[in-house]
Amino acid sequence: MVLADYYIEKSLGIDSQGETLRAIAFKDYSSVTLKILHFETYDGPLLNFDQEISIVYSIPSSIYIVQILDLDIYMDLLLRCWTFLIFEAMDMDLKEFIRLGQQLNAKRIKSFLYQLCMGVSYIHSHSIIHRDLKPRNIWVNKSKGVVKIEGFGFAQRDRTPQEER
């Protein structure tokens, strides 16, 4: 089971999809973000999850997108399905960042907006439309001043022919 490979530091939050945790990988002591989805309590359609994984894995690595490092699916003896997504470490989502009253001066706001615009442009350059860009789907690394886009559950591939764009 994937949890045996990580030391859980703290919970970063619980939402309708599951729980997000800060963890340390035992193999190399790297910090990661671990998202646990439990489909018995999941409010959204499973299709969103499959779609999210498919889309995220189809986008080449980018400094503007939260990268999935690993994925594991576990079924317990009661046939409950647990899915573990391991992401690069980020401190918190933008909603939590704002709720905690983090300092947002003009320079930081410009930097965040620039990174978000570059991320959206990058996603669009790969014919993907996010469709759910909100503070909960933007992750912040406070010490580095970095924001990255996550949450591709409602994303769709743009089927518009290239010449019409």
From TrEMBL:
PROSITE patterns to which the protein is assigned, alphabetical: PROTEIN_KINASE_DOM
Domain of life: Eukaryota
Keywords: ATP-binding, Kinase, Nucleotide-binding, Serine/threonine-protein kinase, Transferase
Entries under Pfam families matching the protein: Pkinase (PF00069)
Protein name per Swiss-Prot or TrEMBL: cyclin-dependent kinase
SMART domains: S_TKc
This enzyme's EC code(s): 2.7.11.22
Taxon lineage: Eukaryota, Viridiplantae, Streptophyta, Embryophyta, Tracheophyta
